[in-house]
Hints:
The structure holds two protein chains of two kinds.
Chain A: E1 3-7, E2 10-13, E3 19-26, E4 32-38, E5 44-52, E6 55-58, E7 65-70, E8 73-78, E9 87-94, E10 103-104, E11 108-112
Parallel strand pairs in A: 2-11
Antiparallel strand pairs in A: 1-3, 3-8, 4-5, 4-9, 5-6, 7-8, 9-10, 9-11
Chain B: E1 4-7, E2 10-14, E3 19-25, E4 32-38, E5 45-51, E6 56-59, E7 62-67, E8 72-77, E9 86-93, E10 101-103, E11 107-112
Parallel strand pairs in B: 2-11
Antiparallel strand pairs in B: 1-3, 3-8, 4-5, 4-9, 6-7, 7-8, 9-10, 9-11
Amino acid sequence: xxTIHQWPATLVQPVGSPLSLECTVEGxxxxxxxxxxxxxxxxxxxxFYSVGIGQISSxxxxxxxxxxxxxxxxxLSSKKLLLSDSGFYLCAWSVVxxxxxxxxxxxxxxxxx
Amino acid sequence: GExxxxxxxxxxxxxxxxxxxxxxYSDSASNYFPWYKQELGKRPQLIIDIRSNVxxxxxxxxxxxxxxxxxxxxxxxxxxxxxxxxxYFCAASLTSNTGKLIFGxxxxxQVKP
Lengths: 113, 113
């Protein structure tokens, strides 16, 4: 069966520090991968998606970047965190071809102080 | 791009009553409409979905209806129980191979015993 791992679960980082969140999927090949952010009491905002290795599409211009160095690995990064980067970050995957259920990781609670 | 509006933002019902959450979407090309339930601090999980070739789908106490002409879809929960209390998100997916889901803002449902 397919599983998705996301870590760390919680993170407290000072303003101006770098960020690296990692997500890996097991049990499937060539998945579509996504990074979402959920601000407190808000909806799920799509940040990045990827349909293959090295293919990254950005939905919202911001202080973050994403990379997909391997088929089932998706990384969210920042060189210098801002206070506004605080939130709940969720990685997700879906079957290639689109228009199917997205499966979410457990999420990372990021607090920038 | 696609935009999904969800109402109401909060909903409080008595146990045993019905709850209805409504969403509208902007892109008539969207053809997949899932609903997710998110309990506090946890990942969103799919509870029901519908595709544009059907108008209604039921699964025990939950149902979803779709009106393609009006570009809106709704979640219906009957005989609500306290464990139904959570945040519910609707989403829409464009016809493409990316599978990216655009989410509504979420509805916080409180079921009072």
